[in-house]
Amino acid sequence: MDKSQFKEYFGFTRSERVSIIVLIVLIVITGAIPAFVKHGTKEPQPSLALYEEGIKRLEGLSGRSKRDKAEEREDYSDPPAVTYNSTTNSLFTFDPNTVSEADWKKLGVRDKTITTIRNYLAKGGRFRKPEDLSKVYGLNEKDVKRLMPYVKINGEQHEAYEYEATKSSIVKNPFERNTNYLQLIDINEADTSLFIQLPGIGSKLARRIINFRDKLGGFYSVDQVGETFGLADSVFQKLKSLLVCGETATKKININIATAADLNKHPYINWNLSNAIVTYRTQHGYFKTLSELEQIQLLDQDQLAKLLPYLSVE
What we know:
The protein is mostly helical. The protein has helices at 3-10, 14-40, 48-74, 101-106, 111-122, 141-147, 192-196, 203-216, 233-239, 260-264, 271-284, 301-307; strands at 170-171, 184-186, 243-244, 253-254, 311-312. The protein is flat.
């Protein structure tokens, strides 16, 4: 191979040589950059201020978490105690039966507790002695002791109360219950606010009791309250001694004119029984006495006894 052929195959033009040089320079620079960055810069060191800031953030989150949990518990717990502030509240002689809402606030009583007291008074309740403040839902022992010395009930503070076995002790509110005077709720007169004050009874159960009472046409026995849907027997046994059935007459259904649909509206009468009563009446004519219901095979003696207070033949 002569010299001219060698240059043709292995030689470089000027532009090719420049390109090669540029490429080599770029390779060298690229390889040197990591070393330059590593030795030319320093990693930032965490400062004490940064740590303190992080701790504060964690404490803030913890505080919010505790507050959230406290708010959740508040929905299922008793209302918080009254907080007395000498700069905004004051103490003065008052009659809890006549004191105004504004004066209750001056005494340091919460709005919710004031509403409870006013509802109690509106339904005929009455404070008979200073100690009755201890029965107010929402006032704790400390606040009761703070307010009691200032209670003046028109000279009735020292009136003695004794339970007389020969007299009825029925009241519509257990709000002022004490150990010397037996007070009960009339199950035919009480509204939801009174049932709610019974142990283990919330707003939902209170409404169910009243709805059940309305559908029945009134209670004739305290035991009927225990039949309320959703009311546990263990709860009923605890509150049973606080209940009494007044003289309110039950609403009666005239079985000589009622339709099967009318009869079926009563909780103690299902469709089969309502149809059986109407069929018997159609076949034998009007009922002359309620004792004729004994001829209906679907009715046993226990069912008939429960149902009779709600039926009539005229």
